Amino acid sequence: MPQTITTPVAAPKKRNHFISYIKGYAIIGVLLIHMIDWSNIIIGHTSILMKELLYPGVFFFMATSGSVVYIAYSKSETWSKPAKKLFLRGLELVGIYYAYSIIKYYIYDFSKEPFYWQFTNTGKMNLQNILLLKAYTTPISILITIGIMIMFSPVLLAISKKMKFPNLIISILFAILLAAVYGVTWQGPISDFLFARNNIMFPLAFWSIPFFIGYLLAAFGFEEKKKWWLAIFAPLMAIFYFWRSKYGLDLYPSHSMYPLQPYYIVASLFFVSILFYLFTWTEKLSFSFSKKKLAIIRFLGDYTLAVYIWHWIVVDLTIWLFYPNTKLLWITVPAFLIVYLFIKRAKLKEYFLSQT
After folding, report:
1. Mean pLDDT of 86-98
2. What pLDDT does 86 receive?
3. Which of 50, 90, 133, 303 meets the CB 3.0–4.6 Å disulfide criterion with 147?
C-alpha cells in the first residue's frame, strides 16, 4: 500500500488586534470627553491633566480611518472593487451626518441646550444653513471630513497597488500637504472651504493630515514597527515641549487641536507609540479580567460608528428630557454602553473567546 505524503499545513496567522485597540481607545476617549464637556461638570487641575490623555482619541478617530483603508484593501486583487466600496462608504458617512442633522432639526427642542443658541438666537438655525454647513444641530461634522477622505482614499490605494516605491511617493505627497497647510497662506473660496473659514466642518486641510498619517503608519507597519515610532516621536515630543516651555507657550496639547497644530499631532503620535507598548504588555497578561477588558476595547473599536452615533442620541435625549440636570449624562451614557454590550452579547462572546 503506497504511503500517503501529507503536506504540512501552516498554522493560521494570529489576527492583529492593534488597529481595533487604538480605535477602541479613541471611541472611549471621545465618549468621556463628551460626558465631561456636555455635563458641564467642574473638574480640578489633576482631572484636566488626565483629560489630556483622552484628547488624542479625536486624532486616532481620524487616523485609524486611514489605517483601516490600507489594512482592509491594500492586498485586494483589484483596485476598482475596493474603490467603489470606499466611495460608497464615504457617501454613507456624509449621508448619516445629514440624516441625523435634519431629523434633529425638526424634532429637537433647542431651547433646552444653550450650546445651540449661537444659531437659534441669531436666526442661523434653518434648513438651508444646515445643508450648506453654515449651522449644525449636532457637532458630528467629523463624519463629513472622514467621509470625504474615505472617498479620496482610492487615490492612495492606487499608488499603493500600482506604483513602485508607493510608501515613498505617499510620504512625499504628505510632505507637500504639510508644506501647503502650514507653510502657505491660502485665500479664496476653495481655501475657505478646505480650512473651514465659512463652514462648521472639521477643516479638510488640517484633518486630512491624521488620515494620511494613519494610512502611512499602516503601510510602513503598525505596531510591529513600534520601536521606530517611539524612537521618532519621543524626541520630537521632547523638542516641542521644551521649545514651548522656553517661549512660554501653552503646554496642553489639546489647546492645539482647533485649528490642528503640529504640537497636538506630535503629542498624539507619541501617545499612540506608548499605547502600542501598553497593549502589547497587556496582551501578555494571563489574567482573564485583563483579556476581557481588551476584548471589550477591541469590540468597541470594531463598532466605532454605531457606538458614536448612538451615544450622541443618548446625549441629545438626556439634555432634552432632563435639562438643566446634565450631570445625568454620567448615568445615561454608561447605561447605554451596558445595554449595547448586552444586546451584542453573542458577538461580544466571540471576542472573549478569540482574545488569546
Report:
1. 97
2. 96
3. 90
Task: State the Cα torsion 267-268-272-274 to the nearest 10°.
Answer: 20
- The alpha carbon of 223 is separated from its chain's Cα centroid by a whole number of angstroms, namely 17
Residue 246: predicted pLDDT: 93
How many Cα atoms sit within 13 Å of 59 on the Cβ side?
28
**Grid coordinates belonging to 188:** 479664496
The pLDDT score that the predictor gives to residue 62 is: 95
Average confidence (pLDDT) over 229-256: 95
User: How many H helices and E strands in the chain?
Assistant: 16, 0
Contact 301, 17 (CB under 8 A): no
Digit-coded pLDDT (tens) for 128-158: 999 999 999 999 999 999 999 999 999 999 9
| Beta carbons within 10 angstroms of residue 235's beta carbon | 12
Q: What is the pLDDT of residue 8?
A: 43
Query: Going by C-beta distance under 8 Å and a sequence separation of 6 or more, which residues neighbour residue 60?
Result: 22, 23, 25, 26, 29, 268, 272
All three cell numbers of 190: 476653495
Q: Which residue has the cell 455635563?
A: 39
What pLDDT is recorded for position 1? 40
Each as own residue / partner, the long-range contacts of residues 68-73 (CB below 8 Å, 24 or more positions apart, any chain) are 68/19, 68/23, 68/218, 69/150, 69/153, 69/156, 69/157, 69/215, 69/218, 70/156, 70/157, 70/160, 70/215, 70/218, 70/219, 71/19, 71/218, 71/222, 73/157
pLDDT number for residue 41:
85
Question: Measuring CA to CA, which residue among 79, 77, 87, 74 is closest to residue 219?
Answer: 74
Q: What is the mean pLDDT of the chain?
A: 91
CB 135, CB 129: distance < 8 Å: yes
